[in-house]
């Protein structure tokens, strides 16, 4: 299988990208590569106005913090192409109302302007027009008024050749609901509209189309550039009318992936640093749950949401899709976090009983997404930062005397005089901090969990649960017994060697645990070995 790695591929961005796609197709066809198994490590954080009031300072602090995270992102040899960076903030209504007025329309003061940030195919004009037609038709079918499209101003001179070669056409569509929808109901309806658009575009086999956000509350600016290039590439963000009560920012570092524009973060609900080790199982379980998925708010339209997780999604994109679904179904962001990434119960003797009942319920409702992860997320009302149960991705926070909360992968990302700091600390394993923008209040981990645990009688519910282990234990078949000759024959059937018996089976029998060794394995991979190998040698454990 010949791979094209000539020097010329690095001299021209478009040539490089085209050769990359050809090589990926070869590897995929040979079952040597699977994009679904990609991971990355990044820098993530958020800045929040605790009182819930939009401030320009919040946006500026978020941009400052993101630029400081340059060391957590990779830089291509051209010095300009990055793995991806972005920012998630509230829709500046005044800014977009002015642009609507330029199209000859006027937005009533009582109307809520909704904005969609859309990536369109850049070079294929026919595919570009197909996407616009689909977007407009689905928006009109959902009884929205379209004010028009806006080409987002960008400065392509500051990004690298490879980033520019894969750069989509970036446009915004400005709409409002004719039905007077507001709040969570409006966000839920826009979620449905976006999913319909995505499914239709997929059916048309159009590549390089992606909706970063479609919301009345927030908009996402992101791309395949360096963190320090964000405001130069998107001059919109320098406008003083861009005010927000929160900013979630992210700098991506692809550990074994080829960066793309759509995989830059933040995603629609969260920004994530880490890996979801249980991804394959989580995706399979979400698919299994789809057949019995129902909710009164969605009704018959729930079929339009499937599949919840798009094929080929990264681990971050997959958990974002699950997080967004639960939030749109009425779960708050803190409760959604507890459901998807619950705290470890185990032998935790210091965990309050009502917290234990809460997480037992969460474990019973949905399978945990486990792995080292630091997450910043929002549902429009709540903005939170969370640490995985093992505490393997650091998160620190600082609260100022004028009500600004800064959370990030490290401390010192925003310059804050010590005299203004009233509280700072780290988020521990399985812990979170959050701001309720509606109430204008900051909450610590225990306060959040106390509130969630008090909302329902989780302990009573769990006492009524049926544990399958007890049913299975009562119906176990008798243990088989073998003669020495039968046992030797069976061991040979399964290709067990004396080494397997002495180094693997014997410790398992004596110590009742997995054998642990420190010797290197210099044997060839089973697929390349000239000697006969057992079937299980061709596999590696996946979660």
End-to-end span in angstroms? 30 Å
Shape: globular
What's the CATH architecture of the domain at 92-216? 2-Layer Sandwich
CATH superfamily of the domain at 92-216: ACT domain
Provide a count of the helices.
16
Characterize the biggest β-sheet.
7 strands, antiparallel
DSSP strand content: 15-25%
| Poorly predicted sequence stretches spanning 5 or more consecutive residues | 1-13
Query: Rounded to an integer, what's the Rg over CA atoms?
Result: 26 Å
Structure, explained:
With 543 residues, the chain is an alpha+beta fold. Among the domains are: 92-216, Alpha-Beta Plaits; 484-538, no CATH class. The chain is built from 16 helices and 16 strands. The protein starts with 12 loop residues before the first helix and ends in a 32-residue tail after the last helix.
Topology summary:
Layout: H1 13-29, E1 43-49, H2 56-68, E2 81-90, H3 93-102, E3 114-120, H4 125-141, E4 144-151, H5 161-165, E5 169-177, H6 183-203, E6 210-215, E7 218-225, H7 230-233, E8 246-251, E9 270-274, H8 279-290, H9 315-328, H10 333-340, H11 353-365, E10 373-378, E11 382-387, E12 396-400, E13 404-408, E14 421-426, E15 432-436, E16 441-443, H12 445-453, H13 458-463, H14 468-474, H15 484-493, H16 498-511
Antiparallel strand pairs: 1-8, 1-13, 2-7, 2-8, 3-5, 3-6, 4-5, 9-10, 10-11, 11-15, 12-13, 12-14, 15-16
Helix pairs in contact: 4-6, 9-10, 11-12
């Amino acid at each position: 299988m010949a791979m094209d790695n000539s020097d010329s591929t690095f001299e021209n961005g478009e040539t490089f990208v085209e050769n990359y796609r050809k090589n990926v197709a070869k590897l995929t066809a040979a079952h040597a590569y699977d994009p679904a198994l990609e991971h990355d490590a990044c820098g993530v954080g958020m800045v929040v106005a605790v009182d819930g009031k939009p401030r320009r300072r919040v946006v500026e602090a978020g941009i400052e913090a993101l630029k400081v995270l340059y060391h957590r992102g990779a830089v291509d040899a051209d010095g300009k192409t990055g793995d991806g960076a972005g920012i998630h903030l509230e829709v500046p209504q005044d800014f977009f109302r002015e642009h609507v007025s330029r199209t000859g329309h006027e937005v009533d003061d009582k109307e809520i302007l909704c904005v969609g940030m859309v990536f369109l195919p850049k070079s294929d004009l026919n595919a570009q027009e197909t996407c616009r037609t689909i977007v407009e038709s689905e928006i009109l079918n959902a009884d929205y008024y379209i004010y028009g499209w806006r080409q987002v101003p960008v400065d392509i001179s500051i990004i690298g050749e490879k980033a520019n070669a894969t750069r989509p056409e970036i446009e915004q569509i400005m709409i409002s609901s004719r039905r007077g929808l507001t709040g969570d109901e409006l966000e839920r309806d826009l979620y449905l509209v976006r999913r319909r658009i995505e499914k239709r575009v997929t059916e048309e086999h159009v590549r390089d189309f992606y909706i970063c956000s479609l919301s009345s509350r927030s908009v996402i600016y992101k791309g395949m550039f360096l963190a320090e290039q964000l405001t130069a590439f998107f001059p919109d963000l320098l406008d003083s009318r861009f005010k927000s009560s929160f900013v979630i920012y992210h700098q991506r570092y692809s550990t074994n992936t080829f960066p793309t524009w759509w995989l830059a973060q933040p995603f629609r609900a969260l920004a994530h640093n880490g890996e979801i080790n249980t991804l394959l199982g989580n995706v399979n379980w979400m698919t299994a749950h789809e057949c019995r998925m129902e909710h009164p708010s969605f009704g018959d339209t729930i079929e339009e949401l499937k599949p919840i997780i798009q094929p080929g999604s990264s681990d971050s994109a997959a958990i974002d899709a699950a997080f967004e679904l639960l939030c749109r179904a009425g779960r708050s962001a803190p409760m959604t976090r507890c459901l998807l990434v619950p705290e470890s119960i185990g032998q935790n003797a210091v965990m309050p009983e009502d917290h234990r009942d809460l997480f037992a319920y969460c474990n019973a409702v949905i399978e945990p997404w486990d792995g080292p992860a630091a997450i910043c997320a929002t549902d429009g009302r709540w903005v939170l930062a969370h640490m995985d149960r093992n505490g393997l991705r650091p998160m620190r926070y600082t609260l100022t005397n004028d009500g600004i909360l800064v959370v990030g992968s490290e401390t010192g990302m925003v310059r804050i005089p010590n005299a203004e700091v009233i509280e700072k600390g780290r988020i521990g394993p399985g812990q979170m901090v959050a701001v309720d923008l509606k109430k204008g209040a900051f909450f610590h981990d225990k306060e959040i969990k106390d509130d969630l645990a008090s909302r329902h009688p989780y302990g009573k519910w769990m006492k009524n649960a049926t544990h399958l282990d007890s049913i299975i234990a009562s119906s176990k078949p008798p243990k088989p017994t073998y003669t020495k000759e039968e046992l030797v024959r069976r061991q040979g059937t399964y290709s067990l060697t004396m080494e397997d018996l002495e180094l693997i089976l014997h410790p398992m029998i004596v110590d009742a645990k997995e054998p642990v060794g420190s010797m290197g394995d210099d044997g060839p991979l089973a697929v390349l070995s000239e000697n006969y190998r057992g079937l299980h040698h061709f596999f590696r454990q996946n979660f």
